[in-house]
Amino acid sequence: MPKSLLQPFLAACALLISVSVMAQTVTDVPLSDADVKIKSAAQNAAQNAAQSAASEAAKKLPTAEEIAAERARLERMRAALAAERAALEQYKADLVRRQQEAAAAEAKAKADAAAKAAVEKAAAEKAVGSAGSVPPPAKDDPVSAKTLSPEELQRQRQLAIERAKAIEKAIATQKAADAKKKAAAASTPQTTSPKDKDVATMKLRRTTQNKVRYVHLRDVAVNYGLTFAYTKNKANKVSGAVIYDKTRKAVFSATYRDGIVNGVQVYFLYPMLIKNSEPYISEVDFLTCLDPLLRYKTPVKLGMKTIMIDAGHGGSDPGAINGAHKEKVYTLQIAKRLQTQLEKLGFRVIMTRTGDTYPTLQERAALCKKYKPDLFISIHCNSSTNKTPAGIETYRAVPVGGTETKGSKVKTEKQSANEFDANNSRLAYEIQKGMLAATKGTDRGTRHQAIYVTGNATCPAVLVEVGYLSNEAEVKKIASPEYQNKIVSGILAGLAGYGSFLR
């Protein structure tokens, strides 16, 4: 009971006791009627006073809710105290860690200073020893300085001065080189790329459907350190899947062949397979399409010094036509602009045609085989009987075991370009990505098609459809030098991305 309620309660009890004693005492003496009335009135007054005091004391007693609130407050105080103790312990641990780090940094600084001093000393000794005009000091010279002539002494002093200057110059040169390296390291962003796994070492579950081998997409995600998730349609049914991390993302469809890899539309050889509620992609898609786009570096090191540019059509073959607009004219213009920019960058460029001539498809492939370029890029313009389609497409050879993007016949015969299936995919992806960024054109994806020049190339090869001549808005762009320069810039950006993939 709180102290504030205890005193009134005790007073009431004392009053009851005193009244009781008085009543007992009075009962031993005969009383008159007046005394009886007085006694009864006194007893009633005492009882009323005691009951009033008890009632007041009861009113001041804490309720169950107040007691619970007080307990909760105490628990919060205990929790706050525990948190403060934990924070104090963490602060102590951090303090110890910082002291250890400071000691380690100081030790490292001393070691670096010692190593730098050793380097400076070695550089100075090397500079002195290699300076042709500064002979090294004589060792075990039998001639005493006392026996030297004044002229010889002067010469020896001059040589000593020159040696000292050479040492100082070497030290200054080394310090300047160190400072330059440090500044370059500070200005260069430090990026680390995870090491790509060898496909042969990956543990992938496999299955076969309609004579096509598939690999488990969840296993693919695990081997690349990616997260897997299903995608669903409006009816909340599984429509595809996605694998992703902070820098890479690939989306697959369970109905169609087209997907999206790192923001670029990519046509796969087969749709994703859902079997026993588990996702699979075809093995040929994994090896020739997906792996090259998820990989940081190519496992096959190829050169990139000589590039063959093929301006589509020409001569008697005008290609697509829209009024006065002819495909053969624009492909040659773009090819020459690309040639100029590549040669400025130091590349060796070989053109399949430089004028309004028509090398046959076989002759173009023969040129590729003869000159053995590192890359082959064929430039074309698209066309359709429907005037609506517009945008950019990039084609590559069909891998063995795959099908054309708009076909179902499985390819069984190997071509020379199939030696570079992985590089073909990465080259097509990078060029498509670069052209989309430069032109802001519509992304119609990277595709597979049985094209003679790309299928029979002896190096990584792509065919680029820069736009639709049949689309009235797009043909005007393609005809303009400004847009052609954007196309060239996009191809150059794609080649730069592909080059980083090779290193």
Would you kindly provide a written description of the structure presented here, covering whatever features stand out?
With 503 residues, the protein is an alpha+beta fold. Among the domains are: 3-61; 199-294, Copper Amine Oxidase, Chain A, domain 1 (2-Layer Sandwich), CATH 3.30.457.10; 306-502, 3-Layer(aba) Sandwich (Aminopeptidase). 51% of the residues lie in helices and 17% in strands. It has a six-stranded mixed β-sheet, with helices on both faces. β15 (392-396), α9 and β16 form a beta-alpha-beta unit.
Helices, strands, pairings?
Blueprint: H1 3-26, H2 33-59, H3 64-130, H4 150-187, E1 206-209, E2 212-216, H5 217-223, E3 227-232, E4 238-244, E5 249-253, E6 258-261, E7 264-267, E8 273-275, E9 278-282, H6 283-294, E10 306-311, E11 321-322, E12 325-326, H7 327-344, E13 348-351, H8 361-371, E14 375-382, E15 392-396, H9 421-439, E16 443-448, H10 452-455, E17 461-468, H11 472-479, H12 481-502
Helix pairs in contact: 1-2, 3-4, 6-9, 7-12, 9-12
Sequence of secondary-structure elements: HHHHEEHEEEEEEEHEEEHEHEEHEHEHH
Low-pLDDT stretches: 25-29, 127-146, 188-193
Strand content: 15-25%
Largest sheet: 6 strands, mixed
How many H/I helical runs? Answer: 12
Helix content: 40-55%
Please identify which CATH superfamily of the domain at 306-502 we are dealing with: Zn-dependent exopeptidases
Q: Could you name the CATH class of the domain at 306-502? A: Alpha Beta
CATH topology of the domain at 306-502: Aminopeptidase
Strand order of the largest sheet: 13-10-14-17-15-16
**What structural class do the secondary elements suggest?**
alpha+beta
- State the distance separating the first and last CA atoms: 83 Å
Rg, Cα atoms, Å? 46 Å
